Amino acid sequence: MENEFLNIVDKRTNAAYDVPLNQGTIRAMDLRKIKTGPEDFGVMTYDPAFMNTASCKSAITFIDGDKGILRYRGYPIEQLAERCSFLEVAYLVLFGELPTEAELKGWVDNITHHTMLHETTKKFLEGFRFNAHPMGMFISTVAALSTVYPEARNVLDPETRKLQIYRLIGKVPTIAAYTYRHSLGFPYVYPDNELSYTENFMNMLWKMVEPKYRANPVLARALDILFILHADHEQNCSANVMRAVGSSQADPFVATAAAAAALSGPLHGGANEEVLKMLDEIGTKDRIPAYIEHVKAGHGKLMGFGHRIYKNYDPRARIIKWAADQVFEVTGRNPKLEIALELERIALEDEYFIKRKLYPNVDFYSGIMYQAMGFKPEIFTVLFAIPRTVGWLAQWQEMLEDQEQKIARPRQIYTGYEARDFIPMEKRGVKTTSVTS
Ligand code: ACO
Q: Which atom of ligand 1 sits closest to the CA of residue 305?
């Protein structure tokens, strides 16, 4: 609502300020006007981890964490997962509307024709150690694309941007598949342009000596749904990194690599790999209560549980559970599912988790499904990074087109020393007293 104000009285000066309130938000810069005198810097806000700060306006993804709602461009995630292909959703996320048939065809064609890697990039990948973590290989190789396409630096040109978007979305499955084959010591498989995005990815992962790889349609569809669920998630840690790095007008390859690096952490996209390790550690259902007590006593976290925004069941976790059932009909049930279901049941009845509103998140069931499909846990986060590249690019584009955005540069509250004199080497080691608390 417009024309709403917060009336703030500064008790230091007894001056009153009307601070405009728009969509429940005040502009932090308006607080700067609250000063004790001309020399005063003005009031700042302090918000470690951005707990209550909107860093941008965005029209891409809507989340209502209390109600467990997720929408891309206004469309409920459940409808998109049921009715769309991943590339159709990618178009929606990036360009704001569902594509017409002709637009979709052109879009798919453009992505398909950018799936190949330059041979030097292939050689670059070959240089990694045999046991290199796929996520490390993925991050480095995406960054290395910046050297292959130097024109990508021209980030203010919309046509150049579009070409890099085709390249990145086209090439991330190829890089991901090569990291996987590399860790197995298998030869790399070139993309097959006759296949869909997901089928081609599976082809590059699993084709051996057969002349043509045919993906199981149930598994290909399940992977496509997983990709849809992971396409974007508004201002999460990695999207924030994409925007921050992109705000310096760095090219989209290095910005995407930085976002992927943020994703790799165990508190973000790295959690799916950690869930599998946790289920392995628990081992059997009878050990779950003891494990939960261990977590409640402050020893680690229940991986795949909790979310900064969702204080209800993550809607993506619900859809993954459904997709996992389809996968298990083909692959047989992953024995870890029994442990996961029981862990969820016990945790959701436990006062500790109820009080803190901790529910399974997207990572809790995705790994169990990926493992049933034949993926090793080390590649789970790479599987997350492929579709999230779409979201990162949409966030990056939106940031560059937003007239209000500038280079991201937070403030700090300085807690270090006041100015002090240099100490020559021979006098160092003599204890000095800090002037700060
Ligand atoms: N297991 C046990 N306790 C937890 C968990 C968990 N998984 N998550 C949060 N808590 C507890 C915290 O210890 C804290 O308790 P306290 O109030 O007694 O100190 C309380 O719940 C609030 O948690 P915060 O850490 O303040 O929540 P925050 O929003 O900062 O963290 C996060 C969210 C990082 C996702 C956290 O829940 C977590 O670490 N979960 C496990 C890792 C995970 O699954 N990450 C994937 C997230 S989804 C994604 O990025 C794709």
A: 7
Find out whether 17 and 5 touch, Cβ atoms under 8 Å.
no
Q: What's the N-to-C CA distance of the chain in angstroms?
A: 44
**pLDDT value at residue 334:** 86
Torsion of CA 331, 335, 340, 346, to 10 degrees: 140
User: Does the pTM exceed 0.85?
Assistant: yes
114, 232, 307, 314: which one is catalytic? 307
Closest Cα to atom 46 of ligand 1: 268
Cα 117 from Cα 207, distance rounded (Å): 18
pLDDT digits (tens, 9 = 90+) for 51-97: 999 999 999 999 999 999 999 999 999 999 999 999 999 999 999 99
Give the pLDDT confidence of 95-124 residue by residue, as tens digits.
Answer: 999 999 999 999 999 999 999 999 999 999
Which residues have C-beta within 8 Å of that of residue 36, sequence separation ≥ 6?
10, 12, 13
Please count the CA atoms within 13 angstroms of the CA of 151 that sit on its side-chain side. Answer: 10
Of the chain, the percentage scoring pLDDT greater than 90 comes to 92
Is 268 considered catalytic here? yes
Query: What is the three-class DSSP state of 231?
Result: coil
| Residues 78, 75: Cα–Cα separation, whole Å | 8
Q: Is 118 a catalytic residue?
A: no
Looking at this protein, which amino acid is placed at residue 116?
M
Cβ-based neighbour number of residue 239 at 10 Å: 27
421 to 303, 385, 431, 433: CA distances (angstroms): 48, 49, 14, 13
The DSSP string of 277-311 is HHHHHH-SGGGHHHHHHHHHTTSS--TTB--SS-S
Q: Look at residues 89, 346, 428, 322 and name the one whose alpha carbon lies nearest to residue 228.
A: 89
Nearest CA to ligand 1 atom 29: 308
Q: Using CA atoms, how far apart are residues 31 and 10, in angstroms rounded to an integer? A: 11
Distance from the alpha carbon of residue 225 to the mean position of ligand 1, in angstroms: 26
Residues belonging to the chain = 437
Vertex 276: Cα angle to 274 and 280 (nearest 5):
115
3-state secondary structure of 418: coil
DSSP state of 96: S
